[in-house]
Amino acid sequence: MAASASLSFSFIGNACGIFTGSRNTRILCDPWLVNGVFDGSWCHYPSLKTRFEDVADVDAVFVSHLHPDHFDVRHFNFDRQKPILILNHGPNFLRKQLKALGFVNIVEFEDGVSAPFNEFMITLFAPFTRHNFHEAKAGNLIDSAMLIECDGVSALNANDNTPTPETCAELRDRFGTIDLAMINYNAAGPYPSCFNNLSKDEKKSEHKRILDRNFAYMHELVEVLKPKYVLPFAGAYVLGGNLSQLNRYLGTSTWEVCAQELNFRGLTSTQTILLRENDVFDIGTGESSSPYVPIDEIEMALYVNQISSMSYPYQSDGAPILNVMLDDIEIASRRMHDRMLRYSISTKTAVFLELGGHHCQIHPVFERLTQAATRDTPSLTCSLDPRLMRRILDRISHWNNAEIGCHIQFVRTPNSYEPDLHTALQFLHL
After folding, report:
1. Could you read off the pLDDT of 57-112 as tens digits, one per residue?
2. What pLDDT, on a 0 to 100 scale, did the predictor assign at position 137?
3. What sign results for the dihedral spanned by CA atoms 392, 395, 397, 399?
């Protein structure tokens, strides 16, 4: 590859990589390098060789949002003077965490406003929609996307902020032909793997339905946006530890399967590209530094078996005092209801917790129960390790991270997804 590339992207893993400009300014995106985010369960596959010291000397770091596969606070050990590029939008939990970590050079971009950074022109975008597939009043509160331009070459790093067809049309009209679009194709999270109201066959069926839906949606986005190249991006992971048995039911797949599906459906003017760790893509010329090496499915299965012996941080905790924890859950549920009012979230679904054989209701009111509830009305029962619940209450862990990490098992009746209800549960803490 020519050293004079005006804009290149070096892929690392998941949503992490480095943009390099025409004057060799390097911006690292969403660094997650070490296995064990989301309370210990998320691991890279393919496993990474890149270490923190390999990326520590970049010129700036772009952090799209708080989720630990984009902002891994365990290993975010950059010089506190290094520019950290974020979106300025509220509620800005990311800015608060960065300041708490001691970072003093936080460069904030206004939503949709292009601004220079060295040789780049950068535009950050707040969530394009509350939810891409479901109605939601609160929905997505934290994600951002980045469009980066250098000497007439451009790339859209959408990561988890998946656009809509309408916003793709707006982006195309505003920026012209985008050279590289990096778009998420996975549905990372607990469904259907953690929903025990489904049989194994039903989970497999839902796994396929969700992937088909996502591939079709991504195909529609690419056909509207019409970039020169599209890179299936973000959401690439496997579960380690005793949750590794759930991998077969996740709403996820490899980037290779996504590329195959896009090509099968046919793309009018866009070429699909695939990258492995440390492959460098010259966005202007469309050349990659190395031929793509396909993923070995047998090797992947062996790797998952290997990491199934991992343990999670909360598993080394002592057992919490039950009565104290239930008192704290009552306080946390009241605070959750206050937040629900603030965000105009309402639901007729009754919500129950099952904590190692102990039960309580947290919505519509808190109530201690002597046994598991059986109800004909809409209900959601959430089962999790009491040690993890203690961490969530104390803000050591977070409900949303535990949920995405598949540490919470669910039973819901009927099997109907309410995005705002799961948003509300993120506020269940002291």
Report:
1. 999 999 999 999 999 999 999 999 999 999 998 778 899 999 999 999 999 999 99
2. 83
3. positive
Rounded to an integer, what distance in angstroms lies between the CA atom of residue 406 and that of residue 34? 18
Q: Which residues lie below 8 Å from residue 262, measured CB to CB, with a gap of 6+?
A: 215, 218, 219, 222, 230, 232, 272
Q: What pLDDT score does 2 carry?
A: 44
Q: Where are the domains of the chain?
A: 7-307, 315-425
Ranges of the chain with pLDDT below 70 = 1-4, 374-376
Per CATH, the architecture of 315-425 is what? Answer: 2-Layer Sandwich (3.30)
Give 7-307's CATH code, choosing from 3.60.15.10, 3.40.50.720, 3.40.640.10, 1.10.260.40.
3.60.15.10
Burial of 344 (0-12, 13-18, 19+ CB in 10 A): exposed
Q: What percent of the chain has pLDDT over 90?
A: 92
CA distance 314 to 405: 13
Burial class (CB in 10 A: 0-12, 13-18, 19+), 396: middle
Dihedral sign for Cα 220, 226, 230, 235, please: negative
Query: What whole-number distance in Å separates Cα of residue 315 and Cα of residue 298?
Result: 30
Strands 60-62 and 84-88: parallel
Say if CB 284 and CB 6 are below 8 A apart. yes
**pLDDT of the residue at 375:** 64
Whole-model pTM?
Answer: 0.96
Q: Are 145 and 157 contacting, i.e. CB atoms less than 8 angstroms apart?
A: yes
